[in-house]
Design goal:
single chain; about 10% strand; two-stranded antiparallel sheet; two-stranded antiparallel ribbon; 2 domains; mainly alpha; Arc Repressor Mutant, subunit A
Length: about 190
């Protein structure tokens, strides 16, 4: 069996991903095209009627920016403010707000998951999936159903006190998931 040196993998050349290579190729081709056009103007190969106007130059500048961002997308992370025709976009603030909102959503998901017990969540899932036909009554079940009803996650179709104390019953005859309960289940899946 051959012996493999653990450090030999570290000495291997690192290849750039294919997308980075294609971005670089596109950037180089874009720059070559712009350089050729500029040289043609300076040398006089292009007649006046074929030269660019101010609006054409604006398109080139935007094109150069697009090429730059395609080749080096990390440049956009360093940009803090974009301003064009009285429109200001503060990218750093947008990113910070987005990160803050994500953190708040994560906190809400955590709070939601702690609000409803696993057993109560299972009752909601069973009712939603139509798998509530083989339930057996006990005091814990009645407490959990009343709690789900007080949270607005289920509505009762009949009195919970009418649930038979012995034998199996179909929970769907006594309760149904509310739109709020369906929304809760959807959010818990996310």
């Amino acid at each position: 069996m051959p012996i493999v040196d653990a450090d030999s993998e570290k000495n291997q050349p690192v290849r750039a991903p294919r997308s980075a290579w294609l971005r670089s190729l596109g950037g180089v081709l874009g720059l070559v095209a712009i350089a050729c056009y500029s040289i043609a103007i300076v040398v006089g190969w292009l007649p006046l009627e074929h030269r660019l106007s101010i609006s054409d130059l604006a398109v080139i500048v935007v094109g150069l920016l697009a090429v730059g961002l395609a080749v080096w997308p990390q440049l956009l992370e360093r940009v803090q403010l974009l301003e064009f025709a009285n429109v200001k976009i503060e990218l750093r603030d947008l990113r910070n707000n987005q990160n803050l909102q994500k953190a708040e959503l994560d906190d809400l998901r955590l709070a939601l998951s702690m609000l409803v017990t696993d057993s109560e969540r299972k009752h909601l899932q069973n009712l939603e999936a139509g798998k509530a036909s083989n339930y057996k009554s006990n005091s814990w079940l009645l407490t959990e159903l009343r709690r789900l009803r007080s949270l607005g996650l289920i509505d009762s179709k009949r009195y919970f006190s009418d649930i038979p104390s012995s034998g199996a019953f179909n929970l769907a005859e006594y309760a149904e998931v509310t739109p709020k309960g369906k929304d809760y289940l959807r959010r818990m899946k996310e």
